[in-house]
Amino acid sequence: MGKKSLKKKAGVKKAATVSNELIIVLAGEAGQGIQSIETILVGVIKNDGFNVFATKEYMSRVRGGVNTTEIRVSSEPVRSHTDRIDLLIPLNDESIGHLEKRINPFTAIIGDSTQVHHDKLINIPFQRIASEFGNPIYANTVAVGTICGILKVFEDRLYTDIKAKFISKGEDVASKNVDAAKSGYAIGRELLKNGIVKCDIKKDTSIKSDILLNGSEAVALGALAGGCDSVFAYPMTPGTGVFTALAGYSNKMGLVVEQVEDEIGVMNMALGSWYAGGRALVSTSGGGFALMTEAVSLAGAIESPAVIHLAQRPGPATGLPTRTEQADLNMAMHAGHGFFPRIILSPGDVKEAFYLSQKAFNLADKFQVPVFILTDQYFTDSYYNIPKLKTDGLVVERHIVETGAAYKRYALTKDGISPRGIPGFGSGTVCVDSDEHDEEGRITEDLDGVRKVMADKRMKKHLQVKKAVLKPVLLGPKKYKNLIVSWGSNYNTIIEAIKITGKKDTAFIHFPQVYPLPKETAGYLKKAKNLILVENNQTGQLGDLIKLETGIDIKNRVLKYNGMPFSVEEIVKAIG
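and the corresponding structure tokens:
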């Protein structure tokens, strides 16, 4: 690769000076190995002492379309998606058109001119270089090396990780990939030398002990910390990530993992596990959860614990199966016929996802209700480095009693929560029935007596659930003029946007639990002069719930529903 080919071209802007961050986007069609590049890069970059955030967008195709990976590398923690691109590596022409709105005058576009055409393109013949090592497929590894050269990653670390990644394919393949990475690394250093890309991000050696975690892994680990001993699912994007993550721990943790024939069977199996004393998790998405609603209603009738991870994506029907949206709050609140209590949690970041998922099992067990963990595609597929999670003090709370001869599964109690027994633990009979039933669990049609009493019993339990609601989290000044109201995966994006604006009179209220709505909600909202609702759905489902519960109508609604998450820039613009 000659130095001449890396000189600045006419019409190419001077590279923007990047002292604390570099935002890299890799793009290509499905099958071109974009995700493989991401997996290698993020690990190498973090282990070299850089803060890193990665997220992806992908089309629902086996091949074709445009898949992209955004990698933010910074001297400070970074945890949200931006529109800005500093360095773009497209693997085909379609990628340029797909990302056109995000390309700015200072974006460096590096690619192979035989595959990509753009007047700002800095030509690096990835294909030819890769072929010199025996296979054009090594082009991805050349690209990895190029990025690491720009970041001045410690070379030995890069080559060690590359070899470890490919050694399962044989020594020859691993060695050639290392050679391809070395070639790319030299190119990256040359790009820096010629001023085509400027990057001088400071490393932080203290983060080398951090862990890289995405939303799916955080929910899975939290479930394990909550005593989860079985997981049931029918594969459905983006809920599958939690299922596969738990499957990876199955042998080590003695976890029962079952891919069931359909989502109806999934939910019924989970209820069977809880009935027998297990602690089961189901993981699904909107279309799959729709099939579970009858069994969710069964959980309400038999007062069974259940933990349901619902990873949201755009609907209706199949909608955009690989995209993101926060549009299933209403479905989670109202799924199942008849009234029965439930809890809906929605983590804002991976740390909170771990602790809320752990807590979900204790809440389900204590109140004998379905507990939902609402995430979305953007949340489950995004990951970044955080300090190691602290597990001291986490307790698996079990609320199972040993039964006696006089045991009644639905015994009437002051708080509506009956002692929960399981078959084989004690001498009593644990009778459950999906029909309305008496205290012993026997079917009844005593309308004015038993039916009303049992309905009131479930309402008492709902009131107990409301007393235990997790409080909303206020971030920012206690005395505020403007208050941003949101939930779920918008968390980090809003925090960064407020920081960028520098507004000292703006705060953000985040809801780790969205249902039942915390009683403190109205108090926080009434203190603000201006309310701004931010939701990744078309109608503002949390805003509607707040209006229903408090009478406060948040008229300024910033809503996005095109299948993409909010960017930091969009929130900055929204809050002015």
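(Above: one complete record from the training split.) The first strand starts at residue 17 and ends at 18.
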